[in-house]
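worker-03 picked up job from queue 'complexes'. Input manifest follows; two sequence lines, order preserved.
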Amino acid sequence: MKYILMMNATKSNFDLYAKWSKEDLQRNVAFMRAFSKELKDSGVFVATEGLGWPNEAKTVRAGKDGEPITDGVFAESKEFLAGYWIIDVEGPEQAYKIAARASAAPGPGGTRGSMPIEVRQVLCGFADLGL
Amino acid sequence: MVAQPLDAPLEHLLRELTPQVLGAVVRRFRDFAAAEDAVQEALLAAATQWPDEGLPDNPRAWLTQVAFRRMTDQIRSESARRRREDEMAVEASRAPEATITMDAPPEEDDTLVLLFMCCHPALTLSSAIALTLRAVGGLTTAEIAKAFLVPEATMAQRISRAKQSIKDSGIPFELPTTEERAQRLRAVLHVLYLIFNEGYTSSAGPQLQRVELSREAIRLTRSLRNLLSNDAEIAGLLALMLLTDARRLARTTGEGELIPLMEQDRALWDEPQIAEGVALISAALPKGSVGPYQLQAAIAAVHDEATRAEDTDWPQILALYDLLRRMTDNPMVALNHAIAAAMVHGPTKGLELLDALKTDARVADHHRLDAVRAHLLEMAGDRDGAVKHYRAAAGKTRSLPERNYLLMQAARLASQTRLGDGQE
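worker-03 finished. Artifact:
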């Protein structure tokens, strides 16, 4: 079963992260690299991407003639996707365990983090309603 | 070097030979993990050379020889690296001359031993599936990765971890003991069934390559049956696969939308395959050791033999589900039993049976319980209830084609309700 683990953060979270010390950033980057490698080595890795920061984020809507109308004004509380992993695991419990590992990525001063990770199933083409 | 797509007979030959060659290499070198890699390399060499150079006189001996040489080379280079005498390498260096071994008829049991090994309960199901397809099925890691829609590196890692688990658990390369045998055979059949299902239940369209998995499961089950022709459950599983797969073309639209059994165009069903499945199950049932696969095959046969949906012999299906329910505690069987009961005794009876499942934690929150309830409520004329449960099921399923199907059912009924209201 495939799951997506999404790292979400508000603009102020991104701003705080940008002010971390060099050591803190290095620790965090090293953790993320090791985490992806761990997923690959254990045979559950499907995909991962990091996203650009929300300062450039735009919401696009189709105008009357279908032309793009962009808006970059967001509520302070809005959460943005920072990055994600897609994993293929035996079931939800394993996905939660892996998400908890990601959540514990080290924070400032090397403290263990508890960043929220949203876990959602990726729909498959599998179908058997028995009808 | 990338192998060109092979023509079907050559691909079939290579896959058939895989477990035989692997068996010979494991017997000779006693290292399953390395032997399995060597055989894959031999298969790749054959796939690149044979189309140009023609088929060797004895393809099995050719593959075995190449795999033996790979093993020997590997052992030599390892021992050279370690700069120490390795008794094994000296012994192994004689391997290419060991033509007697290579010309010997294949040990028929090898395929069986490999199946038992790859489907060992010490492995997770996903590793057992991957390893079975590679070591017994002769598929490449790339092909397996593609079938399961994961990166090749991930599948490679899964397979190598599975091999490591086999090594760590010290699973021997031999047939299970008589006491273990029945239970281990059940594990093998379960893995083959899952491979089949993975291929069959994925809808058509962009995932067409997954059809391959069903074919592969049928091929492997067929060879298992050739090895253990007296086992009625193997025959039952093969019949179940054939009878189910026979409906493949009818079960989805060209765009991959689901068509339920009762609405399928039966002219699209594969007649010869149905005939083969019916013959298999008809021969297996009287043997007396009736098991769950035989019963499911018998149910599939009753469906397949009805020329029109309305000709379906539901009382017989209900009787078979009664038997099956006594044999297994699977709540999905209970769900299907409720549908059959509804078809025979009316939807109220079916809904009563579903109520009993509400307290079963394994299925209480499963989308299929809602889907079946919706279906029975619709039969009972309760449109609002049906709409509610179709939507609930849509919110719970993990499958996109299922969600589309369930939402369409809800939408269809909801629009009828609105039309009905308008007329009043």
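worker-03 released lock.
The radius of gyration of chain B is 25 Å.
Chain B touches chain A through 46 residues (CB under 8 Å).
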